[in-house]
Specification:
The structure is a single chain. This protein has 106 residues and is α+β, with helices and mostly antiparallel strands. Helix content is 42%, strand content 14%. It has a three-stranded antiparallel beta sheet, with helices on both faces. 9% of the residues are buried. The model has no long low-confidence stretch (mean pLDDT 86).
Length: 106
């Protein structure tokens, strides 16, 4: 007997109200919990539009707003946390290379 069959047998022996409660519990287990997701598209757009002004700097961005730019990544991170941002978006901006790196090994 599989574990599923054994559980069903146990549930069938319960009173109707308890069966409904057990079914609600099982249905809840089947669905993965909702995980908040932020694709950071606004932050990536900000970087595309403002990269040149902040080259070689660390930046913290929330949506389309610059929180701080500095040479010190930890200062930038801490500034965002101080503003109450739970998961700061921090990036180091460098010159974007238009020529792809192509390696060749012999």
């Amino acid at each position: 007997m599989s574990i599923e069959e054994a559980l069903l047998e146990e549930v069938r022996e319960l009173p109707a109200a308890k069966q409904e409660e057990a079914l609600r519990l099982v249905r809840g287990l089947r669905q993965p919990p909702a995980v908040p997701y932020d694709d950071r598209a606004r932050e990536m757009r900000w970087i595309r539009e403002n990269r040149a002004a902040y080259l070689n700097k660390w930046v913290s961005i929330e949506g389309d707003r610059l929180i701080m730019a500095d040479d010190d990544a930890m200062k930038v991170y801490e500034a965002a946390k101080a503003e109450g941002i739970e998961t700061p978006f921090v990036a180091h901006l460098y010159v974007e290379d238009d020529v792809p790196l192509i390696g060749r090994w012999s």
